Amino acid sequence: MRNKSRTAQTLIYIGLVLWALINLFPVYWMFTFSLKDNAEIFGDNVVGLPRHWLWSNYISAMKTGKMGVYFLNSAIVATATILITLAVALMATFALTRLIWKRQKTLNKFFMLGLTIPIHASIVPVYVTLSRMHMLNTYWALIIPYSAFSLSMAILVCTGFMNEIPRELDESACIDGCSTWGIFFRIIVPLMKPAVATVGIYTFLQCWNELMFANVFISKSALRTLPVGVQALSGQYTTDWGPIGAALVVATFPTLFVYIFLSKKIQESFIAGAVKG
Amino acid sequence: MKKLYSNKWQILIFLLPALILFCGVLIAPIGASAYYSFFDWNGFGEKTFIEFSNYRELFTSNAIGFMKALRNSLLLAALSVGLQLPLALALALALGKGIKGERGFLSIYFMPVLISTVVIGQLWLKIYNPDYGILNVFLRKVGLESWTRIWLGTKKTALGSVFVPTLWQYVGYHMLLLYAGVKSVPPELREAAMLDGATDGQVNRYIVLPYIKPIIKISVIFAVTGSLKSFDLIYVLTNGGPLHSTEVPSTLMINMLFLRNRYGMGSTIAVMLIVLCFGFALLINAIFREED
Predict the structure, then answer these.
(1) For residue A277, is pLDDT > 50?
(2) How many domains are contained in chain B?
(3) What count of other Cβ atoms lies within 10 Å of the Cβ of residue A107?
(4) Whole-model pTM?
(5) Does residue A209 sit within a domain?
(6) B34 belongs to a structural domain
(7) What mean pLDDT comes out for the span B77-102?
(8) CA-based nearest residue to B152, from B137, B167, B162, B144
(9) How do residues B101-149 score in pLDDT, each as one tens digit?
């Protein structure tokens, strides 16, 4: 009996390790071929570590491939989206959980609809509206839709955290003569740091990787974000894989970097978004 | 305090930005999409009202190929529920029981979810490359030359080749949800069953699975609606080709809009996608309720 379960245990372990390798391999391969030349990638050294570390691939990806520009665009769009989402969601959540009025629950449910609405639903009307307002090919063309689609998740997370802040704090601030805005900015917002982190990370990942809107609303190459930029660059370097690999690493590196330090927080944010939705 | 918090104007000011953003970008466009779907419209000129012609054409015209695209995405949904979820569940059960290196495994399995789909797609383009891709190189090395294919360029293999990375990438996502469920099972339940002499398999079957049923339901809903909406990987790998063999509703929609300037038809596909997603979500909900 014990022997049998020991064998089962070992088999499970082998399975787990195998699946781990399958998941790690593409990333490992990406890092290694980003430092190789074609002779190594196509010939004698397909999966090994690079023999000559070819950092020049990164230089061509950044300069000729314009990855630096795309990276900056993605960073600008992501930062602005996170800030807007947080500000709007914190204000709305404050009204939904703290302020006193009828139908708070109904409105909360209404916002939660956003968790299930696919982005396809709005692509045509938003495109038409942006085009009429001459806002295609601006950062706003991405920042506004991204913020809107992040809002439901942000309100969901913020509601959970804000409900845990004791109402006595509001009371005593009120007695001390604080206005509603004073309570919001001085008491509530500073206590919402964990929610801010969760929402920030989740929103970052959503807009850093988004392709459909980025592809449709931006056609000027100077304003492209990373996913669209990587696509363009791979069309440009069809036969030279090294710079493509370098571009892929540049696009992925920030995500993996954040993940290494905040894996638990990131996983929690994904669970929070799913279980309620 | 009550007086301070009941000020109607203040409440409105706190809510207004969220309402404008949410209604402007999510709610109103659903209505607008539905409205456009009744018109023949190229995006800038006059709209012509054509009633349900777009819908009729969508379901009957072979030239558009919506039925085929829908079939492809339903096949993906079936594979997702039939292969991806069981694998995710097995991983979640194995990890959730408590095993050495649990956190490490979890973090590795979840990693592909975070990497941009474009990056994943580009990597798989390289894996599938007929001349230098590691798949064919590997097959040649082990003497299976005859198994090599132009994976993404042949009608026969393209759909399967597109599905593999799509299914692979999100195993970690479903695993994470299910793992969170497995972890929420009260340890007393597990211990009591173990004391009664239940094996691991029996504990999973009779204690854990019934307990995490609500999460399994969520996973199934996400797997199905996610398959219906799938776009990124297919766009990067084949963009619906060769000869429309890997077309899904989303790639079709983008083609209608931006290659053929058929905004009415594009909107019709968008409406169908929303209806299908909500329909399937309700259906899956009902199936799970029936079982109780």
Answers:
(1) no
(2) 1
(3) 18
(4) 0.91
(5) yes
(6) no
(7) 93
(8) B162
(9) 899 999 999 999 999 999 999 999 989 988 888 888 889 888 888 888 8
Residue of B nearest to A90 (CA): B14
DSSP states along A129-177: HHHHTT-TTSTHHHHHHHHHHHHHHHHHHHHHHHHTS-HHHHHHHHHTT
The CA distance from B236 to the nearest CA of chain A, in Å, is: 8
Domain residues for B80? 39-291
- pLDDT bin (cut points 50, 70, 90) of residue B100 is confident
B84/B79 Cα distance (integer angstroms): 7
**Domain, as residue range, for A197:** 65-276
B-chain residue closest to A201, CA distance: B114
* CA-wise closest residue to B255 among B66, B15, B28, B106: B66
Q: Do B1 and A205 touch (CB under 8 A)?
A: no
CB contact, 8 Å: B202 with chain A?
no
Taking an 8 Å cut-off on Cβ atoms, the answer to whether B36 and A99 are in contact is no
Across the interface, of A22, A33, A91, the residue whose CB is closest to B17 is: A91
Could you give the ipTM of this predicted complex?
0.89
Q: Return phi, psi of residue B185, to 5°.
A: -65, 125
d(CA B193, CA B174): 26
Contacts of B117 in chain A (CB under 8 A): 209, 211, 227
Strand partners, B39: B49
Task: Look up the CATH number of the domain holding residue B171.
Answer: 1.10.3720.10
* Chain B residue with Cα closest to A92: B15
The reply to whether residue B106 touches residue A267, judged by beta carbons under 8 angstroms, is yes
Summarize pLDDT for A54-83 with one digit per residue, the tens.
Answer: 888 898 888 888 899 999 999 999 999 999
Q: Is A127 exposed, middle or buried (0-12, 13-18, 19+ CB in 10 A)?
A: buried
Identify the DSSP state of B41.
Answer: -
Q: What whole-number distance in Å separates Cα of residue B38 and Cα of residue B49? A: 6
Q: Kindly state whether B253 is in contact with chain A, defined as any CB-CB distance less than 8 angstroms.
A: yes
Domain count, chain A: 1
The confidence score (pLDDT) of residue B7 equals: 87
B233: nearest CA partner in chain A: A211
| A88, A120, A215: best to mutate for the B interface, most B CBs within 10 A | A120
Q: What CATH number is attached to the domain comprising A145? A: 1.10.3720.10
- Substitution target from A16, A93, A113, A236 for chain B, most B beta carbons within 10 A: A16
Nearest CA in chain B to A260: B107
Structural domain contains residue A3: no
Which of B231, B281, B219 shows the shortest CA–CA distance to B88? B219
Chain B residues with CB-CB distance to A151 below 8 A: 18, 21-22
H helix intervals, chain B:
2-5, 8-22, 28-36, 53-60, 66-79, 85-96, 102-114, 117-128, 134-141, 155-183, 187-195, 200-203, 209-211, 213-229, 232-237, 249-258, 263-291
Contact B114 A259 (CB under 8 A): yes
The answer to whether residue B148 is domain-embedded is yes
In B140-169, the residues whose Cβ lies within 8 Å of chain A are: 168
